[in-house]
Write a structure and sequence with these properties.
219 residues, three-stranded mixed β-sheet, 7% helix
């Protein structure tokens, strides 16, 4: 019951005071750097494939669910490439987004096994918004025509990634364009405007070899 009340409060505050939405979120960030930093592509030195699923607030109907499938590989000592697909679903289809991105990175040797990589990514996402999926949905004249179906919005991002065998640090902005939705819908209430938001990501960590078969990686 406490979880349900908390969820409803957060949901209400989000609708009343916020008009922007953020990137899909993951708790397994160190296993999923390619999703937020294109400069990570190829940094592991071999072909890497990642598949992740995240369910927030398990047990609550309509709670957010997110999946990602990504692949990245080095093409040479300096060049890396990657692809990722992310699916983000909130409210059992009320808000559903699919991201498609291609990444390119170029690494410079900094000496003593350290590298600094510059990364770029380009792609976009499909947005679906269906108010009829809401549990207590009641048609409202102010929302007529407000649903969105497979609206494509292009975007691009960039990042830096400094790394060695025992240390890494990265800074990135996955999406530079803050696309507005409903801008031509004729809605009178600005609280229904959705604007994709630009987020900044900073990460750093180190790898300690505890023995031949075990490593410790705080970040």
């Amino acid at each position: 019951m406490k979880k349900t009340i908390f969820f409803l409060i957060v949901f209400a505050v989000s609708f009343n005071y916020a008009s922007a939405q953020h990137d899909a979120q993951f708790t397994q960030h160190t296993n999923n750097l390619i999703a937020v930093n294109p400069a990570y592509a190829g940094s592991r030195g071999n072909l890497s494939v990642t598949a992740l699923h995240r369910s927030q607030w398990v047990g609550l109907k309509g709670a957010p669910k997110t999946q990602i499938l990504s692949i990245n590989t080095p093409m040479s000592e300096k060049v890396g490439v990657g692809l990722s697909i992310i699916n983000d679903n909130v409210g059992n289809g009320t808000n559903q987004e699919t991201y498609f991105d291609a990444m390119f990175s170029y690494a410079l040797e900094m000496g003593q096994g350290h590298k600094l990589a510059f990364g770029l990514k380009a792609g976009g996402h499909l947005l679906n918004l269906n108010f009829s999926k809401l549990a207590n949905y009641k048609p409202n004249a102010n929302l007529m025509g407000a649903d969105i179906k497979n609206k494509f919005s292009p975007n691009f991002g960039a990042g830096l990634f400094y790394y060695s065998d025992t240390f890494f640090a990265g800074l990135s902005v996955p999406n530079f364009l803050e696309t507005e939705h409903f801008e031509n819908s004729g809605l009178e209430n600005d609280s229904y405007i959705i604007k994709d938001r630009m987020n900044y990501y900073l990460i750093a960590g180190s790898v300690f070899e505890l023995n031949h078969n075990l490593k410790f990686k705080p970040s």
